[in-house]
Write a structure and sequence with these properties.
By secondary structure, the chain is an alpha/beta fold. Helix content is 54%, strand content 10%.
């Protein structure tokens, strides 16, 4: 990936970098196409080139800067305060707005020193492209900590740190993909080795994500914790249309539909999709949602349980069982 040039002068993609079309940039950054076009007119950034058909193309440098801007917007800043900033200014704001990210790399973090040291080692393995060391460190941590603590105390903060490092440009996308591939294998193996319950306890949970949501790791962490509680889990993977989710819930006689959301979705679309899905599901089928999408927690919806933190799954399962 090419190094971003200082603002306000935004250059065309360098030779060998054909650029990404606007739809791909929307998926990469979570910023809508309309937003990108408005910023282009209002702030002069991004400044895409055009292909032979006249369609916008965005360089890797501009996409990286957009990821940084998106991170700041998620922290509560307004576009007018950040879109026109140069790389140094964006970097300073990111450091001041995201102390939790740098804390994972700091020996002064208040977490247990063993966990902090392990986080540093795992991030180093990702950054030095050492999947063997990464897999070894994660597998041994899972055996030492047990699956529940492994997910909540290590995998969750490590995933946040990896995502932040990617958004800030310290990790490339292939490095994040490496981490996702390795941790997926470790979690899948851990789930498969759990002793089955003699009698299924319930609930039977159908897990998936909505269309455009490609992140599967949050879903897998939820599956691991539910499996520990003795729940029966049916995973459809990612990007399942609403009608298919409702049909699958009926076909599998699911007690619960659980959806994972990252921050790529527009709040209005999230709310509308959940209302539509709730209407399509049988009244007795619970709908649980969670993830990094702030829209899930800003305006509660009737018949939808929002889980802001992974440890909250256990009491939610217990509540469901008490109601049966």
């Amino acid at each position: 990936m090419s190094t971003p040039t200082p603002a306000p002068s935004f250059t065309a993609p360098p030779t060998g970098d054909a650029g990404l079309p606007i739809a791909a940039v929307e998926r990469e950054t979570g910023l809508g196409k309309d937003t990108l076009r408005v910023w282009e007119k209002r702030y002069g950034f991004p400044a895409p080139t055009r292909d032979s058909a006249g369609d916008r193309l965005y360089s890797a440098a501009q996409v990286q800067r957009l990821k940084q801007i998106r991170r700041l917007l998620d922290g509560g800043l307004r576009p007018g305060k950040v879109v026109g900033l140069d790389d140094a200014q964006l970097g300073q704001l990111l450091e001041s707005q995201e102390p939790a990210t740098t804390a994972f790399l700091s020996k002064t973090h208040k977490q247990d020193s063993l966990h902090s040291h392990l986080l540093e080692e795992l991030l180093h393995a990702i950054g030095t492209h050492d999947p063997r060391a990464l897999r070894h460190g994660l597998s041994h941590a899972q055996l030492r900590m047990g699956l529940g603590a492994f997910v909540t105390d290590l995998v969750a903060p490590l995933t946040t740190a990896v995502g932040d490092a990617w958004a800030q440009g310290r990790f490339e996308i292939y490095e994040e993909h490496l981490y996702t591939e390795v941790i997926t294998g470790v979690l899948r193996h851990a789930i498969s080795t759990l002793a089955p319950q003699p009698v299924p306890l319930g609930p039977k949970v159908l897990l998936t994500t909505l269309p455009q949501e490609q992140h599967s790791l949050g879903l897998l962490m939820v599956e691991a914790l539910l499996a520990l509680e003795g729940c029966t889990c049916v995973s459809l993977g990612t990007q399942t249309p609403l009608t298919d989710i409702a049909q699958a819930a009926r076909a599998h006689r699911a007690d619960v539909v659980a959806l994972s959301f990252s921050n790529v979705h527009k709040p209005a679309l999230v709310q509308a999709s959940l209302r539509e899905l709730r209407a399509q599901l049988p009244p007795a089928t619970a709908l649980w949602v969670g993830g990094a999408c702030t829209a899930l927690y800003q305006r509660p919806l009737a018949g939808v349980s929002a889980v802001a933190q992974l440890p909250a799954l256990q009491p939610l399962v217990a509540q469901w069982r008490r109601g049966q």
